[in-house]
Amino acid sequence: xxxxxxxxxxxxxxxxxxxxxxxxxxxxxxxxxxxxxxxxxxxxxxxxxxxxxxxxxxxxxxxxxxxxxxxxxxxxxxxxxxxxxxxxxxxxxxxxxxxxxxxxxxxxxxxxxxxxxxxxxxxxxxxxxxxxxxxxxxxxxxxxxxxxxxxxxxxxxxxxxxxxxxxxxxxxxxxxxxxxxxxxxxxxxxxxxxxxxxxxxxxxxxxxxxxxxxxxxxxxxxxxxxxxxxxxxxxxxxxxxxxxxxxxx
Length: 249
Prior knowledge:
The two termini are 35 Å apart. This protein has two domains: 6-126 and 227-248, no CATH class; 142-212, no CATH class. The chain contains ten helices and two strands, in the order H-H-H-H-E-E-H-H-H-H-H-H. By secondary structure, it is mainly alpha-helical. Strand 1 (88-92) and strand 2 (95-98) form a beta hairpin. Helix 2 (19-26) runs antiparallel to helix 5 (99-123), helix 6 runs antiparallel to helix 7 (143-153) and helix 8 crosses helix 9. It is flat and about 70 Å long. It has helices at residues 11-16, 19-26, 32-49, 53-77, 99-123, 128-138, 143-153, 155-172, 181-212, 231-248; strands at residues 88-92, 95-98. A two-stranded antiparallel ribbon has the order 1-2. The longest helix is centred in the last third of the chain and has 32 residues, at 181-212. The chain crosses the membrane at residues 31-49, 56-77, 97-125, 231-248. It comes from Dactylosporangium fulvum. This is Energy-coupling factor transporter transmembrane protein EcfT. Its main location: membrane.
C-alpha cells in the first residue's frame, strides 16, 4: 500500500479535500492562482492516480490543447470595450483579438482546467461502490438510499450493452440502412421501444434480487468491504485546505 497511491485513500477525503479549492478558484480573476491550483491538481493526478498510457497522453496533450482553444475562444468573446486600453493583436473580419482579452481568456481557461483537474483527483481514483460505502459509513447515509442510487447508476452500462445488442439485431435484419437526419431519427425511434422493454425487465430482475436478499428489512446491514477513514486521509484533507488558505488569503 503506497502512501502516494490515491486509490488507497478514502473517497470522502478526495471529495472534501479539493472542494474548497474548486469553490475558491472559480471566483478568481488572476492568472497565478488558477495556475498554481491546476499545477497541484495535475501533479496529484500524475503521481497519485497512476494513469495509463492513453490517459497520460490525454492529460499531457489534451489539457494544453484545450487550454489554448479556450484562451482564444474566450478572448474573442470578450467585450472589446472592456479591454480597449490593451493592444490589438489581429483582426479577422468582424472579430478582434486584444491582448487584454487574450489574458482574460487565459484566466478563464485556467480556472476551468483547474476545476476539471481537481475533479479528476477523485474521479480517476475512486469507484462507485467505494464512494457509496464511505458515505454510508462516515456520513451515515442510509444504506437504502446509497445502494439504491448505486443500483440505478449501474443501469447506464446495462443500457449501453442493450443498445449494442439492438443495433446488431437491426443490422442483421437490414433495418439500419439510410443516411441523413431523417434516417437517423427512424433508427433511434426503432431503438426506443426494445430499449425501454429491456430496461423494464432489468429493473424487475434487480428488484426481485434485492427483495430476495431482504434489502431494506433492517435499519443497518453488515459490509463485506469496509472503507476506513485513516489518519493519512485527514492529513490529506488538511494539507489541501492549508494550501487553499495559503493561496487565497
